[in-house]
Prior knowledge:
Helix content is 55%, strand content 18%. The chain has helices spanning 3-6, 17-29, 40-49, 66-76, 91-99, 112-145, and strands spanning 9-13, 33-37, 54-58, 82-86, 102-107. The chain is globular, with a radius of gyration of 16 Å. The termini are far apart.
Amino acid sequence: MDTDMAEEKILIVDDEQDFVSALAKRLRSKGWDAETASGGKEALEMAESSDYTAIVLDLKMPGLDGIQTLKRLKVINPDLQIILLTGHGSIREGVEAMKHGAIDFLEKPADFEDLLEKINAAKANRMLLVDKKMEKKITNILKKKFW
C-alpha cells in the first residue's frame, strides 16, 4: 500500500449500516482509511477531531439531514471535500447541495468506480487547497523576514 494513501481518510456518513459497512470495506480494499458515522451529529463530532480527505454524505437521514450536516461541516472546515449521496435525490436537491459547498452529488446506488473517481477528484482538490495555503504561508513568512 502507498504510504501517502494511508494518511488519506474518508468519512462515510449514512444511516444505512449495511451500505456504510460495505462501502468502507471496498474503500479499504483500495487503500483508503475509511471511517464511518451513522448520522449527521456523529459526523460533526468526528470532523471536529479528524482531518478528512473527503466526506461521502447521505442526503436523507433522520435527525440532521445531509444539507444541514453539510452546512455545519463547512463551518467546521470550509475546505472539506463533500460528496452527497442519496437514494431519493432530485436535481433541485443536488443544486442546493452544490450551492452549500458539496463538490459533487451522486444518486444511490452509485457505481463504485464513479464514486472512487469523485473521491480521487476530491483528493486532488484538497491537495491544491493545501498547496495554495502553504504557498501563502511561505510568502507571508518571507515578507516578514524582508527576503
